[in-house]
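Example record for the data management plan.
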Amino acid sequence: MALDSRSSVKTCPKCGAAANDDDLFCEADGVKLPGEAVLAAVDARSSACPSCGLAHADEGDGYCRSCGHRMAPSTPRACVAIGTVLRVGESRFTVTKTREDDDALAESADGRRYLVAFGDTLELAQEESALTSLAGDPAFPSVDPRARAEPGGGFLLLSTVPEDWTPMTSIGSKLAVQDGLALARLALGLAATIESKGIGWAPRASDLFLRVDGTLAVARLRGAAPLAKGARLDAKWVLETVGDALLPYPLVHASPSLLDLFLRLGTSSNEPLTVDEARTILEAPDPDPEEPLPGLAELCHPGLQRDHNEDATAIAAGGTEDDRWSILVVCDGVSSSTHAEQASTIASRTTRDALAHFARSGDIAFEGAASAMKSAISAAHVAVCATGIEHGDSAPPGTTIVAALVHKRRLTIGWVGDSRAYWISAGGCELLTHDHSWVNETVAKGEMTESEALAAPLAHALTKCLGPLEVGDGTIELIDPDVRVRPLPGPGHLILCTDGLWNYFPKASEIAALVHSAGALAHAGVLARVLVNHALVKGGFDNVSVAVCVYGDSVHYTRRQ
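Corresponding structural encoding:
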């Protein structure tokens, strides 16, 4: 096998000097020579981790030695130029399209198409051997015997997938959740077939194709290697490959626990996941998102990086058909304080119960909701302070809060800290709260620009919260929450959330885009799931919690089917 540049002699495109077939650069002027890159390889393990950025992160086990993220297989890379001519004896194959960093499409002189796989001789030989053992199975390509791995490098000629097959990388946004999970199960079926031959597999999403009959096939058997005696194929690689293709759609619509499976694959322990274990997980039913009250839903998730949840939510609804009211509360325990999860739980429930009592008593028809909101949040502050949570020399408990009372065509919002409320409707989107944060106060005073403040060490510091952390000396002092009242002239979505969500999507327009992505007919439970899942897909560094209200234009809520 050799390279050609459409002539019998390789020449410099600048000075015209002749060169040998294996020369990469012109000796006269240093210009890159055409078709030089087939045998020019760079070990993928020298690349940086895509998660934490650590250089030379892979020490040989396929995972980053710092954060545990899955690294690319260690197949050497080759950048093949379009027009490069590959010679196999008297046959020539011209590269027509680059595909991956170690393979490309090529055509023979008679117009037949091939997938050309480049790389390390041993890895190519293992791939060839594995494909030979699977010969006759239409899910796998065949190997052309004219091109085989040779000492010092080389390539394989593989049969290409038909043009009417759909690459996995382009189908995610077109699928429903169950269809996406069905593809994952099909991929595991391929893995089981490969494992039955005593072979391992480390695919890329670009290697998987959906055939016209709805089954999966592979373009090449990347990462094929004999399994040690008693060893099992690691299905984590297969599931993560499918997950890469299906995120954020459709898996962003799956349950957070199922989404966790795909998101944690690269960061979990190096213990293998067998094909049977993976199948058991995927065959478990994926429950539909709940809408516990008409038009209302709440969802708390610890995130992907925290071992416990310090957020809390609470919702309530009641009234007659013509005089409905609803309450939503979201709290975020201050992580630097002691027993923050208790503070957030106490605050959310106390506020909800106080507002619900106000609504049920009938006072809501005669008294101002703004004063009721202030009283409810103040009661929550007192409740957290009075709990007497032991904290020793550590910071006493504290929590943020944002609460909403929806009654008839009016919305009352109250908050302390940096948990937020957004209103999204056909007329636009709006952030209804402003953070009680060091950043906001510093910018308001003109001491820094917003970009400077966000880069400062105190960027995430609060200036106000509920609980003894606010007063510091163990006494109970009143707190003055901010309250805002605004009309609701038409249908829309009210979103309350912690910074576990809005840190990734800080603009109201970004939250609105997530809401719209759930679909025009999505009920509150679906919206809550989609919002939380988007934060998880972005990294899920913090606890993430939301409370959602779908507001209708006639009575109060319109249930959306």
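Summary line stored alongside the record: The chain has three domains: 37-159, 166-283, 296-551.
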